[in-house]
Amino acid sequence: MLDPQLLRSFVAIIETGSFTRAGDRVHLTQSTISQQMRRLEEQLGCPLLDRTGRTVTTTVAGEKLLGLARRILALLEEARERVSEASQPLRLGVPEDFAAGAMAPVLGAFARDYPAVRLEVASGLSHEIWQRFEGGELDLALIKQTRGQGDPVARWREPLAWVDSRDWPAATRDPVPLVVFPSEGLYRRQMTDALDERGLRWRIAYVSASLASLQGAVSAGIGVSLLPSRLVQGDQVELTDWPPMRAVELALHRGEEGGEALRRLSEALIALCDEVMGPR
To answer: How far separated are the first and last CA of the chain, in Å rounded?
Structure first.
């Protein structure tokens, strides 16, 4: 098994024409370089260097080894780079309504610009994403939160609307059936508090962590929900006479590590959210 360090020193000697200059290139002393060449010649069983001239040159055997050594070293460098590339993750957490659709082209463009970065994208409830970001598990976190929370790099207002089915309305039932996120979800407490203040009886009729599932349940007439106004679908209606709800905000939080790739991805996400959410 040939030691790559011996091959590296051998190539340096030939390319510089001197043991001293080769030592400077590979950061070794001249005596160490000489010892390495003796070891390499002993392993191969033949002289590799002609030391009789003013500059060191190859023997016939050394000439054959030179090209192979360069190829071996190039392959080793390629292996190092590929392993290094595979170990550069950039971890992003996003709400479900941003996990697909408009975000896919943004992530695709970023991947083409930074092929060495491995994107790891997680979607879920905002409180879960925030916990992972605070725990250092995410580099970027796009979350729904109460307005004015934390110190994000960008934030957008997210108006909310009471939503009911157009064909099978549930708002007039008693108690009012509610379609909600799990208990830790951002909108659920706002819904129940508002109905309690209005003196309306309610019951939890449907629970899901999936936005698409909640939207489907509302459209099917299972119950009323509180959702972002921009996501109201054609088979749904806004209940404009129900208690007005204070807007939440969409906020982008960025970690301190990650360098240029993290900064560029956050800029691309800000541009996307400006387009989707409107002016900040």
So the answer is: 62
Helix (H, G, I), strand (E, B) or coil at 180: strand
Other CB atoms closer than 10 Å to residue 228's CB: what's the count?
20
Q: Which ranges in the chain belong to alpha helices (H)?
A: 4-16, 19-26, 30-44, 60-86, 96-99, 103-113, 126-134, 188-198, 211-219, 259-277
| pLDDT tens column, 198-234 | 899 999 999 998 888 999 999 999 999 999 999 999 9
pTM of the model: 0.65
**CA distances, 187 to each of 79, 199, 246, 252 (Å):** 49, 19, 11, 19
Can you tell me whether residue 86 is helix, strand or coil?
A: helix
How do residues 149-205 score in pLDDT, each as one tens digit? 778 999 999 999 999 999 999 999 999 999 998 877 778 888 999 999 989 999 999
Q: CA separation (Å) from 130 to 114, 142, 144, 189, 242?
A: 26, 9, 9, 18, 30
CA atoms within 13 A on the CB side of 255: 20
Quickly count: other Cβ atoms within 10 Å of residue 77's Cβ: 11
Q: Supply φ then ψ for residue 185, to 5 degrees.
A: -65, 150
Q: Which residues pair with 86 in a beta bridge?
A: none
Residue 255 backbone phi and psi in degrees, to 5: -75, 170
How far is residue 271's CA from residue 99's CA, in Å, rounded to a whole number?
Answer: 16
Per-residue model confidence (pLDDT) at position 174: 93
Q: What is the DSSP letter of 115?
A: T
Residue 133 contacts residue 141 (beta carbons within 8 Å) = yes
Cis peptide before 152 (omega within 30 of 0): no
Cα separation, 146 vs 186, whole angstroms:
8
